[in-house]
Amino acid sequence: MQEQHVVVTNRLGLHARAAAKLVRTASGFRSSIRLERAGNGGGDDISADAKSILSVLMLAASRGTHLSIVCEGIDEEVALGAVCALFERNFGEDQE
Amino acid sequence: MSKRTRNGRHEQHWRGVSVSEGMATGRVLRVHSGSRQHIYRATLEEPDIEREVRRFQAAVRLSLRQLRAIKQRAEKALGAEHAYIFDAHMLMLEDRKLLDEVENLIRREHANAEWALKVASDRLLSVYAKIKDNYLRERSSDIEDVVSRILIALSGEPQQRHLTQDAVIVAEELLPSTAAELDFSHVRAIASDAGGWTSHTAIIARGLGIPAVVGLRELYRHARTGDEIAVNALRGEVVLHPSLNTVEQFRAAKGVVGVRALTSESGCEEPLRTLDGVEIILRANIELPAEYGGVKRFGARGIGLYRSEFLLAQRGQMPTEDEQCAAYKEVAALAGIDGATVRLFDLGGDKIAAGETDNERNPALGLRAIRLCLRREDLLRTQVRAVLRAAATGRLDLVLPMISDVSDVRRTRRIIDEERINLEREGYETGTIKTGAMIEVPSAVLMAEKLAHEVDFFSLGTNDLVQYLLAVDRSNDEVSDWFRTLHPAVLHSIERTLGAARSAHIPAIVCGEMAASPAYALVLVGLGALDLSMTASSIPRVRRMLAAIDAGKARQLATDCLSCATADETEELVRVRLSEMWPELFPPESLPPPRQEW
Fold first, then answer.
1. H helix intervals, B426-581
2. Each residue of B51-61: pLDDT tens digit?
3. I want to staple B538 with a disulfide (CB 3.0 to 4.6 A). Which of A30, A66, A84, B516 is the partner?
4. Helices in B348-461 by DSSP H: which ranges?
5. What is the least distance, in Å, from the CA of B133 to any CA of chain A?
6. What is the ipTM of this complex?
7. With contacts defined as CB-CB under 8 Å, which chain B residues touch A61?
8. Which is catalytic among the residues A15, A21, A52, A57?
9. How sure is the predictor about B243, in pLDDT bands with cuts at 50, 70 and 90?
10. Quick one: pLDDT at residue B351?
11. Partners of residue B98 in chain A, C-beta under 8 Å
C-alpha cells in the first residue's frame, strides 16, 4: 500500500472538470485508488473511490482541503505518482 | 407583479441576476429541463426483470452516444474548456456507483427503470444538497442533467428542437446538454428561473455573448412558447408581453450596446480617475448570492448596498440572529478591505410583504422600512446584533432606509448602542460599525444639513427619491411619463444632499439605477458625486466612460441642468451636450430619444 498527503489548491476545488481528469487518470490503473478526507475527529472521515466521479464529487473537496491518496495493487507506485502529479499541477488549470 | 397596459394586456416584469451583457426582444421558447418529469412506479413480473435491466442499459448507451456527439459539437462552438463538462457527464453514465444501484433496485424491488433511476439519483442528490461549498453544490445540476437524459432516452422521445429566428429560451434551468443541443445562432437571449454566476447557463451565455438573466422566480410557469418577451441583461430585467413602448425602448438601446462577451477589465485594480484627476469610487449593489461572483470580477471597490431583505425572501421566514450573522460575515469577507454597507430590512411597499402591512391603502407611504423596524423592535434588535457580531470579522456599515426625520436616526442609534452593550455583556465580540441614512424622502433632503450631523454617512437611493419627490408610483405604467430621473427637482435634491455631506465631512454614496447608466452617472459626477454603487455588471461600462471624461466638464453640464425649468429641458440638454462633447462615448442611439409632444 502506498499513501501520500496532498492539498487541493485549484480555485474551484475538486469540481466537475478536475474530478473528470482525476477519474480518467485513476481508471487507467489496476490498483484501487482512494481519496480520504479526515473529518473533525468525530469518526466522520470520508473516503472516495477515485475511479467513480460521483464518489469524488461527493467529497466536496473545496480549495484548501487536505486529502490522503491511498493506492493498493500491482501498479500502486505509478498510480500514486500520476494522481499526485495532477494535484501538484492544479489539474492543468490556470490560477486566477 | 403584473400591471395592465393600455390595450388591456398584462406587461409582466421580473427582476433577476444578469450573467452576461446585452438586451434582446423575441418570442419565448420554453425548454423543459426534464428534472420535474412525473415518474410512475410499476411493479414488474419476474420474467420481465432482466429485460428491464437491459432496457436501462440500452438507454444509458444511447445517452452516451448522444453525449459524445454533443461534446464534439460543443468543442467546436464553445471551445474545449466549456466542453469538459460533457466529459464529466459521460463519466457519470459509466459510473458503477449509479448504475449498480439502479440495476439492484430493478432486481430487488421489481421496479421499472424510470422509478429505480429516480430513487437512486434522489439519494445521490440528497447527499449533494448538504455540501457547503456553493460551487460544488451546484454540480448536483450535472447529475440531474444526466438523469433527465437517461429518462428521455427511456421514453424514446426525440430531442430535436426547431428554433424560430427570434427564440428567447425560457427554462427552469438550462442544463448544459440541452443547451449544447440548441442551435445558438438562432437564440437571442436566455432567461431562467434558477442558476447563478457559476451555472452552466451563465458560462455558456457569456462564452457566446448571448444576453442572459437568471434567478427569475416562476418565469417558466408564466411564460408560454410564442409569447413576446424582452430581456435586458444590463439591468437583470425581463418583461413578458412587453408593450410597444417597451419593445421600442429595447430596440433603441440594443443597437448601441451590441452583444459583447464580458471579460474582466484590465486595470480595474487601479483607482479610477477622470481625465482631470478626480478619483471616483465604484461599488457593487448586491442582493442574491448569485451576484457575489460579480463583485470581484467587475472590480468593485467593496459593496455599497447589501439589500438584506433577500435573506427573508430566501427562507420565507425571518432568519435567526445566527443565520443573519453568517450571511453578513460572508458579505463582509466578499467586500474585503473596502467594506460592505448592510441596509436594514427594507420591507413593505412594493418589496416583499412582511405580513405586517395588510390592507394598507397606500403602502409606499405606509409602515415600511425604518418605520417597520422601529415598530417591530424585536426584528430590528436581532438584525442589529447580527451585524454588530459579523462586524468583528470584517468591515461592515449599517444604513437606515427611508429616513424622514432625525428622530428615526436617534431611536435606531440608541438601539444599536444598547445591543452593543448587551452583546459585550453576553461575551460576544463586536466590531465598530458606521451608521448611515438613506436619503430618499423629500423631508430628508430638506433636513440634510441636520441629518449629516447625526450619521456617519449618506446613501442616496435615487429610485425612491424620484418616486417620493415627484409623487410618481414607479410601478404604475399609467404615470410612467411623470417618472423623470433628470427632473430638475431631482437634480437639485441630489446636489443639496451631496453638498450637506461635504460640509459635514461625511461620505455620500449614490446607489440606485441612476448610477448604472453612463449618461446619468456622468450627471451625478457633475453634481459632486464621488462614490457610486450599482449592479456589478454595470461597473465596467461606467468605469470606461468616467476614465475618459473631465469632471470639470461634467460639473458645467450639471450646473446648466440645474438652471433648467423642466425635465424635457434637462433631457434635451444632456442629449445635445453628451453627443457634442463625447461623441465616441455617447453615440446618438445611446441617449434617450427626444420626447414626443403630448
1. 442-446, 448-452, 462-469, 488-503, 513-516, 518-526, 539-546, 551-562, 567-581
2. 999 999 999 99
3. B516
4. 369-375, 377-390, 406-425, 442-446, 448-452
5. 7
6. 0.89
7. 136
8. A15
9. confident
10. 42
11. 54
